[in-house]
Specification:
It is a single chain. α1 crosses α2 and α1 crosses α3. 19% of the residues lie in helices and 18% in strands. The strands form 8 sheets. It has a 3-stranded mixed beta sheet. A 3-stranded antiparallel beta sheet has the order 10-11-18. The chain has a 3-stranded antiparallel beta sheet with strand order 15-16-17. By secondary structure, it is an alpha+beta fold. The chain has 2 domains: 110 residues, no CATH class; 201 residues, no CATH class. It contains 7 helices and 19 strands.
């Protein structure tokens, strides 16, 4: 039976001494099971094992279960010259006639055709490789494919950035900044219950916007057309306005009027009142005093007229009326702000039944 000697630190070396094979595996300790040695060569192998190997490697631990005619050496040997010494020593020690006779009669396989050792299935023989450094891909050089942004298929997909587009129906509106406020520069034209085009003409809706009962403008139940809505009118009440916009209050209208008065004074136009400055230049009925709108601040008020509580339409071309998010104490009426062609005023002193239908202008939150 051959014994395996383990030497560490050298590359693969095959030592041959009269049929003795020594296999050196770098950095790898391989355990193998012994193979039965033919009876005709067992003694000769024993002579070589003890005489040749033990005399050269005196301090080496001998491993068990070596493969026949193969010795695995993985003890640390710092110089490959030691391997050459093993070969020479093995040759001189094996010169005895008895050993030669035994070895010549044994079936020793030539070194060049030594078969691979049979490895126990419980032990894996792994060829160690130097670990490769991890490489990080050059993200600067890599082709980066950015996912396409989802296409906007809404009604406002192609709307210009400078306009307000109502995503509910695709209606577009000009807007204008007047002082600290941003207003719609056109009347709202979003169709809901209890809203109408003047004289039920779609062309009038295009030119003047729709006319809304108060509850429709506030987006409240019709029951509040005859009773107080109270706390349902929250701060910056959106009502029928698009998202991000709301129905103005009396205070908002007063802020607008005050800014126009002061700006006109600063510009040397003290004689031009608010109503004239907010009215559009055309579309209004002419009068003897020839008070024409200047639309000086871009508000663009148009004479949309109104629809009364009985369903009659009146005053197209003569006046404009705008609901505010206010109501009287008994809840049956609500205030509205008025522009009239025959004077220059812009006044919120008017109140009417909530079942009248007036125009709506929204202000940005």
């Amino acid at each position: 039976m051959l014994k395996r000697v383990t030497l560490h630190g050298i590359g693969p070396i095959v030592l041959t001494a009269l049929g003795l094979s020594v296999v050196l595996l770098t950095g790898c300790k391989t355990e193998t099971q012994s193979r039965p040695v033919p009876s005709s060569s067992s003694e000769a192998v024993a002579v070589v094992d003890s005489a040749a190997v033990d005399s050269v490697v005196s301090d080496t631990a001998i491993a068990d279960t070596a493969v026949v005619d193969t010795v695995v050496v993985d003890t640390a040997i710092n110089d490959t010259a030691v391997a050459d010494t093993l070969v020479q020593s093995s040759s001189s020690e094996s010169s005895s006639s008895s050993a030669e006779a035994e070895l010549s009669s044994s079936s020793v396989t030539p070194v060049d055709s030594v078969p691979q050792a049979t490895v126990d299935s419980s032990v894996q023989e792994v060829a160690l490789e130097e670990p490769q450094p991890e490489t990080t891909p050059d993200t600067a050089m890599a082709d980066t494919v950015m996912p396409e942004a989802p296409k906007d298929t809404s009604l406002c997909a192609d709307a210009p950035a400078a306009v307000l587009c109502d995503k509910r129906d695709g209606q577009m509106y000009r807007t204008v900044r007047i002082g600290s406020q941003v207003w719609m520069a056109q009347n709202l034209n979003h169709a809901v219950e209890n809203s109408w085009c003047y004289m039920n003409s779609l062309e009038n809706c295009s030119n003047y916007g729709r006319l809304y009962q108060w509850t429709a403008a506030m987006a409240l139940d019709n029951a509040y057309g005859h009773s107080a809505a109270g706390d349902l009118l929250g701060e910056k009440h959106q009502g029928i306005c698009p998202d991000g916009w709301y129905i103005p209050t009396d205070k908002d209208m007063e802020t607008l009027a005050h800014y126009v008065v002061e700006s006109n004074k600063a510009a040397g136009l003290a004689t031009e009142d608010v109503g004239t400055s907010l009215r559009k230049e055309s579309g209004w009925e002419e009068n003897d005093e020839e008070i024409l709108g200047t639309n000086r601040y871009g508000f663009g008020a148009v004479p949309a007229g109104y629809r009364d509580a009985n369903g009659s339409f009146a005053f197209l071309g003569e006046e404009a009326d705008f609901w505010v998010a206010e109501e009287t104490s008994n809840g049956t009426q609500a205030p509205h702000w008025n522009l009239y062609y025959a004077n220059q005023t812009f006044s919120g002193e008017f109140k009417n039944l909530k079942t009248f239908a007036f125009s709506v202008r929204c202000i940005k939150k």
